[in-house]
Specification:
Layout lengths: L17 H12 L19 H20 L4 E6 L3 H9 L3 E6 L1 E2 L4 E2 L1 H15 L3
Parallel strand pairs: 1-2
Antiparallel strand pairs: 3-4
Helix pairs in contact: 2-3
């Protein structure tokens, strides 16, 4: 089938399969934005979740922070996958942790989560 349709057999290209990226953007933004013409939307396809995290970490440090922000803090949940910490350390981000999980009850801990959000707000948005 691939040979009959004369499709590329090796890889999708540096930004991924274009049709997949467009359809994913439509799914994410539904009817809120014109995905085809809005220049604020950029989409890429990654090989894995780990690869996607590394790309977003590099984008965050090299584009967002260099142009718009001074601090290099990124907040990750506790617990999270162990490799997430290493991925973001490699991008020179300062890892901060937030709690959302009660290990005793094995349930979402709303109060602990909201306490962390309040700390975040006081650190970055103090009057």
């Amino acid at each position: 089938m691939i040979i009959d349709k004369n499709m590329d057999k090796e890889y999708a290209g540096i930004a991924g399969y274009n049709k997949f990226c467009k359809l994913a953007s439509h799914l994410a933004f539904k009817n809120e934005m014109n995905v085809e013409s809005d220049e604020r939307i950029a989409s890429i396809q990654t090989v894995s979740g780990t690869g996607a995290l590394r790309i977003i970490g590099e984008f965050y440090v090299n584009i967002i922070m260099n142009k718009f922000m001074e601090n290099k803090d990124i907040w990750l949940p506790d617990p999270t996958w162990p490799n997430h910490l290493g991925i973001y350390r490699e991008t020179s981000l300062n890892i901060k942790r937030y709690n959302y999980y009660d290990k005793k009850t094995m349930k979402f801990d709303l109060n602990n989560f909201l306490d962390t959000i309040n700390v975040y707000l006081s650190l970055y948005y103090a009057e």
